[in-house]
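Message: A physicist's question: would you kindly supply an amino acid chain plus fold tokens?
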Amino acid sequence: MSASENPPAPAPREDGRRLAISLAIAFLAVGLAYFAIAVPGTWFPSRSPLAWSASQLSLVRGTGSVVGDELVVTGSAPDGSVLVSIETDFRTDQYPAVAWAAIDLPEGASARLLWRNDVAPTRLNSVAIAVESGRPLPVALEGSAAWIGRAKGIALLVATRLDRPLRIRGVVAKPMGMVEVARDRASEWLAFEPWTGESVNKIVGGADLQDLPLPALVAAIVIIAVALWYAWTRAVRRSLRALPFAAVAAFIAGWFVLDARYMFNLSRQVADTSARYRGLDLREKHLAAEDGALFGFIENARAVLPATPARIFVGADAHYFRGRAAYHLYPHNVFYDPVRDAMPRPEVLRPGDYMLIYQRHGTQYDVATKRLRWDGNAPVSAALEASDTGASLFRIE
């Protein structure tokens, strides 16, 4: 058998070197391919982002004031909306993205970017803004038929009543070169994911909404790197017996990147938890938790509840609050649906029962007639025993 028919024995160091180079090439290839798709214009624009601070913003609808470097909006307008605007004058083709720097937008808030241009100055244009973890995401306007001419004023519209103050630090118009696109993706990957009560062992991997999810990027790099290693090894006529080890090593490298991201998030969660609960007693820890307002209400409601266990029916839009309310009410006989927001039928109630309603739609109470009804059912006679913002305790009569 000739030397050409009998490949040399595999050299672990050379196999490892080829794999490392293959990973680097795959990383560059995937990155360049993504930038070719994602960067709307030139990769290295000479223009710098245009930024406006909170002091330059005008609060058109809603109530609030500038506190430090933030516009703090404390209340909505009578129609339940908030409108913040800024006068601008820039070429839209040079700045294809707009990003509002704001936090504490209500969960499920409807937010829109509004603008006018000099081409049709009387027309008000708008586009939806995605909201992630209480923050508006940057809006890419490249290709929008209305993003033309010069932008003569932009605005942020939040068409949802505020459940807590909305803080706005400003707005930025971005030229969206390669550096800015990379910075936006990195901020999505490194976005803090606080514990939601579902699992401490798994996270999304950054923001819930990502233009390029980090796990998908890592998987693509690993697959391409292994394919490159295979092709390179065949080209130099080396043995392919190390292919399984190369695949496992590439997989472990990708796993390490994702696990490093998990550990980074975990360290921030530990710091956040420590800052929230450090030095507090048990009651203060309950009040500082995510369901602190619910705990405080139930703590006050216990003053009117009987000493012996009573039947208490719990209603809340969120299953988390239904479960937590039941936990705080024990050892009373608590009834709630852990899956659906299902209230009891009026005929199953009897005098002396209680109903605790927390942040739930579809419930009405007439104070004058002392009649309680929910979900369009027949009203029942009930006395209001305790109440707070979004919370009520009724005793069935």
The two ends are 99 Å apart (CA to CA). DSSP finds seven helices and 21 strands in the chain. The domain at 50-176 is CATH 2.60.120.260 (Jelly Rolls). The chain has three domains: 3-38+210-274, 50-176, 286-396.
